[in-house]
Specification:
The chain folds into 3 domains: about 110 residues, Alpha-Beta Plaits, CATH 3.30.70.1050; about 110 residues, Chitinase A, domain 3, CATH 3.10.50; about 180 residues, Trigger factor, domain 2. The chain is about 45% helix and about 20% strand. Strands 6, 7, 8, 9 and 10 form a 5-stranded antiparallel β-sheet that branches. It is elongated, with a radius of gyration of 34 Å.
């Protein structure tokens, strides 16, 4: 039994539930008899102990289980009869101050999902990102692939690829190995000393003054120079202080990058070293990546616009759940990185703003999907998987793997639904195309 649904504030509701005590006692006795069939007690064969002994040991636990079941079922019946969509979990408490003959009384307080008012999508302004893949981007990618396959030779030593030229001094682009020691006010400081320390000159791996001091040195030469640490230097104990470093150059190695030829193409997995196929493959991969990134930017623009045009109250229960979920994601990520989570104050309130956006957009999208039949179809899901699989060596195996895994399929369905929502909004809204520079897109 239940009282009428009481509206407390905005989305919050309350109902009073009564559970007949006779029904509880009957169910408790039934469950205890079932448990007694296999219960083990000293001095008795399994299932032969008196019911009173079983009740003494398990009665409280079984009664709690029965109450939870009865109250939960009653709550579900009332919310279903009143067409209430419960957001989050209800808070159910016994009402000791209210008595009903032969019944236990509980009070359930909960939130419901809000009404979402979408407004007129025809007035929404959305940016649709576009980007081109030209020969220049392909050349730049090939250069990056070359640099990833670079190998080093000692300057001045003749070898298969030469000796690095007549200048044996350290220059930007070289890999150098040094010994160094730093002092502040004549005293060595923690982290200011190293032996056989390698780094690439000109890559910004060291402070600018440090790299400039190495340039021009030859193997075996030493140099002493001043260096002032930046005020925002990560080592707080030396930040803003002036030090004196002495360095000794142990080794200078020049970089040899592979030639762009059929052998290079073969190292990229191109059969027969076909140079044109190499460029075609790189173009296809870049276009696939660019397509994914412009879709993501466009989706962000669409979701931002929806968040502004829609009117709704966000259930506190959903905000709390998502904030805790985001906090737990960060804790798990830090644990995987080997960090001590206990030393960091990671609390749900840190993610309140992010959770509000996520929940708000989720509710808006759910309403759009329901109102406009934007659910993912089987054909769309398969098409998404087949397109995704093209990036792999054995696409058929990837497709088979996804189709046989219910969890992966659910993830794909969710992404297809998002695409359906984005495309629907783009078909209704005021769309302005925005050309995004390739480098900005890939580095964003």
């Amino acid at each position: 039994m239940a009282t009428a649904v009481e509206t407390l504030e905005k989305l919050e509701r309350r109902i009073t539930l009564t559970v007949p005590l006779a029904e509880v006692n009957e169910e408790v006795e039934k469950r205890l008899k079932v448990r007694a069939r296999s219960a083990k007690f000293p001095g008795f064969r399994p299932g032969k102990a008196p019911l009173k002994m079983v009740a003494a040991q398990f009665g409280a636990m079984v009664e709690s289980e029965v109450l939870n079941d009865k109250v939960g079922r009653a709550f579900g019946t009332v919310t279903a009869e009143n067409n209430l969509r419960v957001a989050g979990f209800p808070r159910i408490e016994p009402k000791a101050d209210e008595q009903v003959d032969g019944a236990l009384v509980f009070q359930a307080t909960f939130e419901v999902y809000p009404e979402v008012k979408l407004g007129d999508l025809s007035g929404v302004e959305v940016e649709k990102s576009v980007a081109l893949v030209t020969d220049a981007e392909i050349d730049k990618t090939i250069d990056i692939l070359r640099r990833q396959r670079v190998h080093y030779h000692t300057k001045g030593e003749a070898g298969e690829h030469g000796d690095g030229g007549p200048d044996a001094s350290a220059q930007n682009g070289d890999r150098v190995t040094i010994d160094f020691v730093g002092k502040i006010d004549g005293v060595e400081f923690s982290g200011g000393k190293g032996e056989n320390f390698p780094f690439l000159l000109g890559e910004g791996q060291m402070l600018k003054e440090f790299e400039e001091a190495v340039v021009g040195l030859k193997q075996g030469e030493s140099k002493t120079f001043p260096l002032t640490f930046p005020e925002d230097y990560h080592g707080k104990e030396v930040a803003g202080k002036k030090a004196e470093f002495t360095i000794t150059l142990k080794k200078v190695e020049w970089a040899h990058m592979p030639d762009i030829d059929s052998h290079f193409a073969e190292t990229l997995g191109v059969p027969g070293g076909d140079m044109q196929k190499m460029r075609d493959d790189i173009r296809a991969n870049l276009e696939r990546e660019v397509g994914s990134r412009v879709k993501a930017k466009t989706k962000t623009s669409v979701l931002d616009a929806l968040a502004k045009v829609a009117e709704l109250e966000v259930p506190k229960a959903l905000l709390e759940q998502d904030s805790e979920r985001l906090a737990e994601f960060m804790r798990q990520d830090m644990r995987q990185r080997g960090m001590q989570v206990a030393d960091l104050p990671i609390t749900p309130d840190m993610f309140a703003e992010q959770a509000d956006r996520r929940v708000r957009i989720g509710l808006i999208m759910s309403e759009l999907v329901k109102a406009n039949t934007l659910q993912a179809t089987g054909e769309q899901v398969r098409a998404w998987i087949e397109d995704f699989a093209k990036a792999y060596e054995n696409p058929d195996q990837v497709v088979k793997h996804y189709l046989s895994d219910r969890n992966r399929l659910a993830d794909v369905e969710a992404m297809v639904v998002e695409e359906n929502v984005v495309n629907y909004v783009l078909s209704k809204a005021k769309v302005a195309e925005k050309q995004v520079p390739f480098d900005e897109l890939m580095n964003g």
